[in-house]
Amino acid sequence: MSVRAIVGAQWGDEGKGKIVDLLAQDADVVVRFQGGANAGHTVVNSYGKFALHLIPCGIFNPKVTNIIGTGTVVDPAGLVAEIAQLHQAGISTEQLKISNRAHLSIPLYGYLDRLLELARGNAAQGSTLRGIAPAYAAKSLRVGLQMGSLLNKDRFMQSLRDTLISGNQLIEAVFKEKEIDINATLLEFEEYIRVLSPYICDTLPILHQAVKEGKNILLEGQLGVMRDLDWGIYPYSTSSNPTSGGAASGSGLPPHLIRNVTGIVKAFSTAVGAGPFPTELKDDVGSYLRDFGEEFGATTGRPRRCGWLDLNALRYAAQLNGFTDVAITKLDTLDQLEHLKVCTHYKLDGQIVKGMPLAEDLERVEPVYVEMPGWNCNTQHVRSWQDLPTEAKAYVELIEEACGVKASWLSVGPSREATFRRS
Fold first, then answer.
1. Residue 41 annotated in active site
2. Distance CA 222, CA 383 (A)
């Protein structure tokens, strides 16, 4: 049996979907363990190019059981559309399961998200406006709605109505804005209940039966460590835990079963949304990384902020997650750069910082860089470690040293075939 957690080692958008799609060819179960439809995993394979927001990336292997785990918040409209997109491409969702304990993200939450961001003005947090924070807030306040409730339609509809009435009272009292149309929302959910009910079940017995039978299990996270609610750049964070610790509670597996933790490392740094980003480049190099690397959000289409590789953030991620190995993606994006810079440490008020400062201090840090020669040649055809340029190997080894583990996979392009093992 093998249980492996796949986690983002930076600010998200590291290419986790690509690696999960690859590893799912030898997996039996893939679990999405946290987050909502506010970020997507881009997958390119023989079926085409897909941006998955909630459905695990193992869906392209018909032998894999795909679980939307308890730690997620499910946007029913988005999930129904995602299922329809897969069906249109000829991909079966028969093996999709949704935890009955996962929470719903209803249209009210997206509306509240927008109103809250507008109210923050210049202090806006860069939310994707998908209702993720209000959905997790409702869960923590113990007024949320669980997916399993959809299976009792009459009782669910009454609970949803009560929630919408309370939400409208809040909108009127605090924001003085237009209220949610309750009847229209209830009508929407008639279709969501019809489509999603067959997928909803208690997923814990399925997962633990797989453990008993010695099956291979992948735990798929969303975003990256720097967006973790507890350990990230709070308050510019997500509302859940995309770290390996979150993989246990979000899936329903005891922590000791997670023997392998693969950190996904993009060969440079990117971030979407507001908050501190120490190595950000606002020059031609940053524009090149964005354009050549096609760095635009899979969910929102927003251009990503791009910067040099940040080893301080990687060391922090390795400490928190306990990486057993890493996968390095988008090496080919650096192909045309003659010189590379890598941030090794931060300085704060003239002193080298140990660890990761709070966001309020991270805004003020000065990155300390070392310069390295680029390889200045096309690596998109490379399929082995031996064929990588010497300078690219040195760059990989610098990442391995920062993370304290070896890189098991290297990627030089978007397709499944462009990711190869590091011998």
1. yes
2. 27
* Candidate list 21, 26, 28, 41, residue with the active-site label: 41
Q: Which listed residue (13, 113, 228, 332) is catalytic?
A: 13
Burial of 371 (0-12, 13-18, 19+ CB in 10 A): exposed
Q: Span 265-421: which CATH code?
A: 3.90.170.10
The reply to whether 13 belongs to the active site is yes
Strands 366-373 and 216-224: unpaired
pLDDT digit string, tens, across residues 184-222: 999 999 999 999 999 999 999 999 999 999 999 999 999
Non-local (6+) Cβ contacts of 258 within 8 A are: 3, 4, 5, 219, 244, 247, 248
pLDDT tens for residues 227-266? 999 999 999 999 999 999 999 999 999 999 999 999 999 9
Contact 45, 21 (CB under 8 A): yes
CATH of domain 2-99+202-261: 3.40.440.10
* Residues 364/348, Cβ–Cβ less than 8 Å: yes
Beta bridge partners of 8: 224, 264
Hey, which CATH number is domain 103-197, 3.90.180.10, 3.30.565.10, 2.10.260.10, 1.10.300.10?
1.10.300.10
